[in-house]
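**Backbone geometry record:**
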Amino acid sequence: MEKQKIKHSWAEPYKIKMVELLKMTTLAQRKKAIAAAGYNTFLLKSEDVYIDLLTDSGTSAMSDRQWSGMMLGDEAYAGSANFYHLEETVRDVYGYKYVIPTHQGRGAENILSKTMIKKGDIIPGNMYFTTTRLHQELAGGQFHDVIIDEAHDAENQHPFKGNVDLNKLDVLVKKYGADKIPYICVAVTVNMAGGQPVAMQNMKDLRKYTKKHGIKIILDMTRVAENAFFIQQKEEGYAKHSIRSIVKEICSYTDGATMSAKKDALVNIGGFLALNDKDAYEEASNLVVVYEGLHTYGGLAGRDMEAMAIGIEESVSDAHMKARIGQVIYLGEQLRNFGIPITEPIGGHGIFLDAKRFLPHLDQDKFPAQALAAELYIDSGVRSMERGVVSAGRNPKTGKNYYPKLELVRLTIPRRVYTQAHMDVIAESVENVFVHRNKIKGLKMIHEPKYLRFFQARFAKL
């Protein structure tokens, strides 16, 4: 008789020692709250939200080690001991030579763009990210998408939809010349594609190509440990490699990185710019004084740098990452069982509802993803966010909307915050909205900010 295989469930590698009580709202209260917020979930008050899936940025629960580290904050203006601990940790875990702390990831993007981009430059990337593209444009550059075509198809099952298409990159190099490309920006994982990973082989091939043409690779390493998990699970030859070793190998194929530590590194604020070139570091460390603070604190308190250093170490734990991605997969499988259209394969930091298939009766000019996020909040108090035409913004030259192929609602899971029971509540709420989806009429935009409109735009029901 064949021996029956026993399924081994996973559990969180921690125990809860403190809780935050939540406010429970009524349907009438939620309808009033979302209307007052202009049907933009970013403008809701936190106290009116039951389960907050707006973002995984700065919303993680810190460990007891991180909290104790906060008490060791050296708040000296120059030469803080916590900076040197952070510097040592970045060198050890990621392998970069030079580290400049910033208040968060977009601070690093700003410094990078101002020091490396000249007017008329071309910056290829594996799908745009909102703040990254804006900083590139403000510096005089122009973003070009070189992600593989599969990334723009929510139903495609390619295991590494974050991969760079080397043929697309080669077309740009031949058209504009390598001297017009200061660097290629590679995000791991790719947020706007649904948290999709980049394969290690793709990083190796890209490094080989860029060395040949003298082009730098800058990593958006916000979720590099999550990307490492997918390499470990899906890419041949990496099953027995640790998350930590895979992370370091990814970084080894790049020349520098921007980091929003509010994601992988499990802190509520903080980031850094990491570089290997001394001259580039000298220029960036000089400019950070103008925009952030001295190069040994970069707009952060010493205690925040200490918590970041500890969080980096915790982020590359195999047990932590198994539980972190496991919770995302659990929610995704629940939604698939209900027949909900989502971006597949299930990505790293959240589940992305496919609003085009969810609300096929609404075209993009009626902002289906924005409308879906609002309806989900009304149903249960779950706050999500739009990742579609509103987030894509407008072409700065023509003033016309960008119309991305992906029109998504992101259910972003904060790290170490919610339980499986919360995931069940979320799944049931999405199912309820799906059952009544034909009643959703869409929205019109009544207030549009000049930059990054998805943060502060206001809408009205059609």
About this structure: The chain has a mean pLDDT of 96. The longest strand covers residues 98-102. The domain at 27-56+318-461 is CATH 3.90.1150.10 (Aspartate Aminotransferase, domain 1).
